[in-house]
Amino acid sequence: MSVNMENDVKDIIFSEESIRKRVRELGDKITSDYTGISPLLLGVLKGCFVFLADISRSIKLDCEIRFLTASSYGFSSVTSGKVKIESDLDYEIKGRDVIIIEDILDSGVTLTALRDFITECRPASLKICALLDKPTRRQVPIEADYLGFQCPDEFVVGYGLDYAERYRNLPFIASLKPEIYS
Ligand code: IMP
Ligand code: MG
Fold it and tell me: How confident is the model at residue 32 (pLDDT cuts 50, 70, 90)?
């Protein structure tokens, strides 16, 4: 394991500056779309933690912020096709205007499972906000209502996204050198 994470980076795909600008735009859009509404931002752990921290501060509304955990990848970079949802939510979803905040939409399996799970709790409305989308990888049809960037079909890390729980604290989004996976 290298001590300097940046040595493991192949290419920077989205810079710190471009992410900051785009996240602000998304926050502004949500602020205007939800005028007079107090949305419930529901962050999908763990990958959302940086994105949610930033976008929530660009949303100039009285929001409630909660988290749930969805995992499908384990320590591999290929989806297992199974989603485990862990949440202590019950009453507070009903009648709320929920915005799911997710790091990346890939096969769509995770967000589909989450959407179905939340829908059963009968929210007043439900939208999906994802920082990244890899549309070519989709296995089930689902789209984000608010999207940061379309991402090339490459495994990416940084800004909350991990490989085996590492690289989440890189301030940009990057691909990794192939030798990291072997
Ligand atoms: P999906 O269920 O295949 O759409 O996968 C969504 C989840 O897979 C995301 O929340 C991420 O945790 C993880 N994931 C998918 N692609 C990547 C990637 O390129 N880097 C890091 N995590 C990823
Ligand atoms: Mg994840």
Answer: very high
What's the 132 CA to ligand 1 centre distance in angstroms?
9
Question: What is the torsional sign of CA 41, 46, 48, 53?
Answer: positive
**pLDDT digit string, tens, across residues 131-160:** 999 999 999 999 999 999 999 999 999 999
- Tokens 């179905």 correspond to 116
Taking alpha carbons only, the member of 37, 15, 181 closest to residue 98 is 37
Identify the residue whose C-alpha is closest to ligand 1 atom 19.
155
Model pTM? 0.92
Where residue 40 falls (left for φ over 0; alpha for ψ -120 to 50; beta otherwise) is: beta
Which tokens in the block code for residue 88? 């202590």
For ligand 1, atom 15, which residue shows the shortest CA distance? 106
Give ligand 1 pocket residues (Cβ under 6 A). Answer: 47, 72-73, 79, 102-111, 155-157, 161
Instruction: Name the one residue in this structure whose structure tokens are 């009968």.
Output: 122
pLDDT for residue 73: 54
Whether 125 contacts 145, CB under 8 Å = no
SS3 call for 24: helix
Rounded to the nearest angstrom, the distance between the alpha carbon of 65 and the centre of ligand 1 is 22
Q: Which two tokens stand for residue 81?
A: 């096709």
d(CA 71, CA 81): 10
